[in-house]
Every structure is written in structure tokens, then in C-alpha cells.
What does this fold into?
Amino acid sequence: MYTPRHFSVSDSGQLAAFIDDNAFGTLVTVVDGRPEASHIPFLFDAERSVLCGHVAAPNPQAEQLSLAREVLVMFQGPHGYISPSWYEQSDVPTWNYTTVHVYGRPEIVEDDAEVRYIVDSLTRRYEAQFNKPWQPTYDDRLLKAIVGFRIHVTEMQGKFKLSQNRSAQDRANVIRELKASGRESDAALAQYMQQSLD
It folds into this structure.
């Protein structure tokens, strides 16, 4: 990923927190020159530097994960259009965004108990937001319909393009305009921008 120095984020704790907050990622594999992508939730074990997930068994990536030597997973955070009219001196339109790219070596999870652990862990994580979380009670035979995997992380690249190349006044203006838009996504982007100033 092209990342000018002032947009680069390399702190492993910050990258792990970002993945945790934006865990619905895009898994990219390339086999025989053809890229495939799946959009799925991930779990990141920062201590072991491993991403876990699963895909449907008929998904072409289920087989590709056993063939690929390296995969890419992209995590997208808040992003939005930045109007040049918000700057002290007009410039050109741009797009501010936050993203983390993770490269790693894929491994198919063969053990049924481990596949169930991945599914149950994802379920617990996302059911936790409800007053009465659903408890997994499904037939284990349903696990045959998916392929669990781990990605052993070899490299993480973070890029938070948040107007760091602009003046403090321009950045304050952009934050103000994003907040004023009333859009939740713009407010989240403004929050990232504010954190980068602090």
C-alpha cells in the first residue's frame, strides 16, 4: 500500500485496536493470477499475531487458502470526502480514510473442535451487544458447511490519511465540517482526525 510517511501508522497496539474496532475485513487471495475476495468478520489474536475466520465450503477461497503462500486482508475504517472549500486557501478535493492491510500465511483449520471454537468466538463477540445473547446450540454437522482458517501475520501496514499534510487551521476546519454534516460516518472520521491532533 502506498503510504507517505505522515499517513503511516506502525504502532502494533494501535493497529490491533483498529482491527478489533473494524473487524469486518476483505480477504484477498491470488491463485493462477486471478484475485478473489471475500468480505467476512475476523478475530485477531494480537499476542499470537494470528487472524482467524471462516468461509463457506463452496467459496473458491476455501480451496485457495490451502494453495496460496500469502494472503492479504484489508480492514476499512471511517472515511469521507473532503471539500477544498473547507481549507483556508482552496486546493483540490480529496478523500480522508483509515485502513489497515495485513499480510500473512494462511492455514486451514482441520480440527472440528477448533473450527467450532472460531465460530463460537465470533458469535460470542457479536452477540455480546444484545440484552439476551443467543447461545450456540446448532448441530455440529453444520460445521462441515464452512472452512475455518488462521492467517499467521507477517506484516501489518496502517494508513490513516487524516489531513496531516495540512495546516492546523485546515484540519480544524475539516473536523468542524465533518461534524456539521450530521452523518455518523463523518463524525467517526472527525473523531479519528481529532485524535491525530491530540
